[in-house]
Amino acid sequence: MLTFTVRRLILAVPTLLFISLVIFLLLELAPGDPMAQVPLTVPPEVKEKMRLALGLGEPAPIRFWKWLVQFFWIEPQVLVDHVFGTSFSEGDLRVISWQTRSPVMDIVVQRLPQTLSVVGTAYIVAILIALPIGIYSAYRQYSWFDQLGTFVSMVGFSVPPFFSGVLVIVIFSVQLGWFPSIYDTTLKVTDWDSFVKQLQQMVMPVMVLALQITAQLSRFMRASMLDNLNQDYVRTARAKGIGEYTVVMVHVLRNSMIPVVTVIALGIPSIFGGAIITEQVFKVNGIGQLLIGAIQANDLPMVQTLTFIFAVLIVLFNLIADVLYGILDPRIRYD
Fold first, then answer.
1. How confident is the model at residue 268 (pLDDT cuts 50, 70, 90)?
2. Which of 67, 83, 214, 329 has the fewest Cβ atoms within 10 Å of its own Cβ atom?
C-alpha cells in the first residue's frame, strides 16, 4: 500500500502540470479583456501601461512559467513564513488578482471559512442522514420507508438549488420569519446570542445543500447494500448462526461502503469549491461566489488559481479513495 501511495504521488506531479497547462491555455483562448472594466475616460496609453503592469505584454509561455514559480515555489514559502515567522518570501512577487490587486491566496484564505462552515456542515449532515437511510431502505426493500426514501431522493435530484433555495426563503424567511434570508458574513461568534444567530443563518443554505447530497448518497448506499445482501457470504454467515445485526452492520456494510467511499471522497473537493448557486442565492461570501465574480471580471489569475486548486483536491481525494479501498476490503491489494 505504501509503494502504491508513493507511486501515485509521483504520477500526480506530471498530471497536475498538464492540468495547469490546459487551464492556462483555455483561459488564454477565452474572450474578454481585463481592461474592459476600466472607465472609458482613461486614455489608451494609460490602459496600455496598465496592461504591461499586469504582465499582459509578455509572451504566454513566460506568463505560464511565472505563474508556476509563484504558485509552487513562492506561495509555499509564504505559508512557511506565516507559520514559523521566517522571511523566505520577502520581496517576491506573488499571484496577484487583477480585480483586487491583492494576493490571490490571501483572498482564498479569507473566503474559505465561510464556505467550510456552510458547505462543509451540509456535507457532514448529508452523510449522517444518507447512510442510515440507504442501509435501512435496502434492508427493508419495497417497504413504506423505502418508498418514502425513493420519493424524497427523486425530489432532491429533480429540484435545482436555485428553485429550492428561493422556495425555502419564501417559506421560512418571508412567510414564517424564522430565519434571515441573507447570510451575514460579517457576523462573529463571541457569545451565545451570536452563536444562535450563526446557526439560524446557516439553517436554510445547509438544508438546500444537504437535500441534494443526501439524495445522491442514499441512492448509492441503497444500491450497494442491495448488491451485497444477496451474496453467498451473507447466506453463509446467516447459516452459521451469526446475528442479523452483525451480518448487516459488519459484513454487508463494510463491503457496501467501497463504492460509496468513492462518491464521498470525490464530493469533498466540492466543499472547498463551494456551492456556487446556493452561495449566490443566500449571498454567502464564499469560494463559489469568489469564482463567479472573478469570471465576470475576467480576473484570469484568480480563475486559474482557483480551478487548479480544485484539480489538486480532486487528484488528492482520488488517491485517498483508493487507499480507503484497501482498508475496507482486505481482498484489494495494489501490487
1. confident
2. 83
